[in-house]
Amino acid sequence: MSRSPGGGGSSEVLVRFEDWDRRRALIDQKQVGVSNEQWRFMRECFRDNVQEVHSVRKELQELQITSPLLHCMVVDRLDKLEERFQQEMKREQTVREADVRELRELIGRESMARDGHFEAMRGLLTEERLAREAHVGSVREVCEESSSSQRLTSSRRSRAVCMRSECFCPAKTTAHERLFNRVHVRVIS
């Protein structure tokens, strides 16, 4: 391209202008492509976000619908548990009261039986004491009668003495003598 003095410069400008237009069109196309790509990406993100918002709204609505149901279910279960707990408490209280009554009855019976036993033992001891006192009194009477009596023979007197000594020292007499003395005391009285 040679330059001609007078008019050759405009074609160069024109070529440059056309080149610039082409470049600008390529750049515009690239920018439009990038811009279209950005718009497409933004639309996809927006669509995804809208879908997410819708799904979250649905879940929230479902929770709002099921929440009262769950609340009712939980309240019902708690009421049933509380009722069951109250029943168990009443049953346990009844059982404990019955056990306490039974224990009190057993203690009362035992104390009555013990008191009865003590009274019976007291009565037996009193009878035994009275019987011993009566026996001692009768032995003393016999001893006093035999010692004060002048009609007794010496053998009877020795037997009475022996009987008196038997009261105080029974080991010195034989079983035969004790039997004889008992019979003799009964005969005398």
Which SSEs are present, and which pair or pack?
Blueprint: H1 8-148, H2 154-168, H3 175-188
Helix pairs in contact: 1-2
Mean pLDDT: 77
- Which of globular, elongated, flat, extended, rod-shaped describes the shape? rod-shaped
Task: Give the low-confidence spans.
Answer: 1-5
User: What order do the helices and strands follow?
Assistant: HHH
Structural class: mainly alpha
Task: Indicate the percent of residues in helices.
Answer: over 70%
Biggest sheet architecture: none
Number of strand segments: 0
Distance separating the two termini: 188 Å
Number of helices: 3
Our Rg estimate from Cα atoms comes to 67 Å
Structural description of this entry:
The protein has a domain of 81 residues. It is mainly α. The N terminus is likely disordered.
Comma- or semicolon-separated keywords:
189 residues; mainly alpha; 3 helices; 90% helix; disordered N terminus
Task: Give the gist of this structure.
With 189 residues, this protein is mainly alpha-helical.
